[in-house]
Design a protein that fits this description.
Two copies of one chain form a homodimer.
Chain A (H helix, E strand, L loop, with lengths): L3 H8 L3 H8 L7 H14 L5 H8 L4 E6 L5 H16 L3 E6 L4 H13 L4 E4 L8 H6 L5 E4 L10 E4 L1 H14 L5 E5 L5 H16 L9 E3 L4 H13 L6 E4 L2 H13 L9 E6 L12 E4 L2 H16 L7 E4 L2 E3 L14
Parallel strand pairs in A: 1-2, 1-3, 3-4, 4-5, 5-11, 6-7, 6-8, 8-9, 9-10
Antiparallel strand pairs in A: 10-12
The structure holds a DNA duplex (30 and 30 nucleotides).
DNA sequence: AATCGCTAGTAAAGCGCTTTACATATCAAT
DNA sequence: ATTGATATGTAAAGCGCTTTACTAGCGATT
């Protein structure tokens, strides 16, 4: 492959001249420019990014570390981040960690070693402090979607509490009083907040939040199955379930069906996320939509601001939205075991 | 950040010694090793990968270019690639191109400029020759999932023809004779092959492939809607539809429902891909499963083989599998407009 | 006493680029 | 004729690492 020096030799100028010309740091007469351009074309020269990065200390690239790229939520987030980054002339290196602590740490370190200009971090577990430690002191990091305790970098989240608040209000407005909540991992920020929003709606309606009807475990289909089984096998099942992720909701649907019951006739259900499949399941799922694209874009914008020495908002909350489909109806008779 | 020289100074040896020690290219007495280790720990030294790469010309990283990371099929492929690459000590840089020709070309070029050790390429459009040109002469490339005409690198595909053959046979075995096929973009390898498999099954059963019942367009839900509308609005609709992707199948479902018909009672449907949502829709979709994880793994293995100077198979075909769920039943009465 | 072979390293060049500081030629103004 | 400004560049160092070729010192052998 041709190097800068090759081009310089071909054009009869110094490497310095070519470098500065290519970076718009010098004014050259038209004739010289033409010779350089011709040499570049002739040799099919392409700058070696590695060398440039080593020399300048800038990489024009971001890292995105994500728990699981095969999860549509994170995949869409990644797509949005990439779109926005490219629009600003940055590449993005995506790593998916499988949600394992050591993989996350390695990814962060590897990214740092490759000297990317910035890092967008998403996680889905609660940190024991090691992640916070690793991130502490690092500049040009933004946290996306989920918090890491003790890390003071710009964060962009969704209004989790508002989401479950809207969902619960919707259920209550439909006449439900016996509402259960199935949530993600205990102590995860989003889980706390979603529980809080739910509780607020219940309080406002003068309804009790029954301890046995708040099940916290995982944002997965499997946990949806487990939790729904507990709920439906009890002597007095709820008439509505608020699932804190669409994955959980899918699991709930499965169990409801297995119990010979129907959604929404016997049990009403609302999900959270509005993943692509939410509209496709039967019945189409009423759920809380997260503005995934906006989240990714904003994270990138914050990162860019950071790079320019600005100080973006420490925390932004993007609004969520209730999208009503067909998984919610007024409670009919009390469902009996 | 501490450099190799800092470590050397701290340990009282030359940078050469430290470098060679770290790369296992020298035997040092225990005392010296201890001093170096201590210095590394004290300074929290981490090698600068950029510098190393520039110096060695190796990056221990692959690029994966993919049309759309937000598409679960490619996302799962990416996850599999990443898993296998990491297991072999390689990083992978994922780029998603949006399926646009120029974005694909840019991605390939950018990857080459960043000097990754290898490239795994997936595409979903038919190339006009520019991609082939760009890839020609490049070593350490493997093509995954879809072919690019005129590129002679190792390729790993799925047995597309076998997939539709199995699907069609299944439909025929259930008693269907009036079967339509809705496929992806005309001239795409997978489309040709899937059409061929379908045709073979029909031929073997002595059934005609009616030209009006082979609709080629896109692997998308929208195209599924369009094609199914054409099919169902005709005076003599088919009793079964073979959709060449699960996305298409979803579109078909929507149209069937809109026509007041039911799957599988009025129309049988089989998809292709077995995406995560295929089991979740109503009715659960009978479909052809692609071995996504195996595809990703094999692509990486081929790339590694290439790096070691071996010559992996020019083309491997991974087997597909019919997974029967509930979208297929024997034809009932002829569906009338 | 000179030579050999080890051990334990080191000096210096090079990867391909950027950047700082300097150089030369030309021209206009004094 | 000299000065100064402007236009058109260049030399050389440096980014942090690897690698090739070399060397100083020492004990053992002839």
């Amino acid at each position: 492959m041709a190097t800068l020096s090759d081009v310089a030799a071909e054009a009869g100028v110094s490497p310095t001249a070519v470098s500065r010309y290519l970076n718009n740091r010098i004014d050259l007469p038209q004739a010289t420019r033409d010779r350089i351009d011709a040499a570049i074309a002739k040799l099919d020269y392409r700058p070696n990014l590695l060398a440039r990065r080593l020399s300048t200390g800038k990489s024009e690239a971001f890292a995105l570390v994500t728990p699981d790229i095969a999860n549509p939520f994170f995949a869409e987030l990644a797509a949005a981040v990439e779109r926005q980054a490219h629009a600003s002339g940055y590449s993005v290196y995506i790593t998916s960690t499988g949600g394992h602590a050591d993989a996350e740490m390695n990814a962060i370190r590897r990214m740092a070693d490759s000297h990317v200009d910035g890092l967008i971090m998403t996680t889905n577990r609660v940190d024991d402090g090691s992640l916070a430690n690793l991130l502490a002191g690092r500049e040009n990091v933004v946290l996306l979607d989920e918090d890491i305790d003790g890390v003071s970098v710009p964060r962009v989240f969704v209004d989790n509490a508002e989401g479950t608040y809207l969902a619960a209000k919707h259920l209550i407005a439909m006449g439900h009083r016996d509402i259960a909540l199935i949530g993600g991992p205990h102590r995860l920020m989003s889980v706390n907040e979603r529980l809080a929003g739910f509780t607020r709606a219940m309080d406002e309606a003068g309804l009790p939040v029954r301890p046995g009807w708040v099940l916290l475990g995982d944002y997965t289909r499997d946990y949806g199955v487990a939790a729904a089984s507990v709920l439906l096998d009890a002597v007095d099942p709820p008439t509505a379930i608020l699932a804190c992720s669409d994955y959980i909701a899918i699991g709930v649907m499965q169990v409801v069906r297995a119990h010979g019951l129907s959604i929404p006739n016997d049990i009403s259900l609302v999900g959270f996320d509005d993943m692509a499949f939410a509209a496709l399941v039967d019945p189409p799922l009423t759920t809380i939509r997260q503005p995934v694209a906006a989240m990714g874009e904003l994270a990138v914008k914050h990162l860019l601001a950071l790079l320019e020495g600005q100080t973006p908002a420490a925390e932004t909350r993007l609004p969520v939205e209730l999208v009503t489909r067909q998984s919610v109806a007024p409670p009919s008779r009390k469902v009996l075991k």
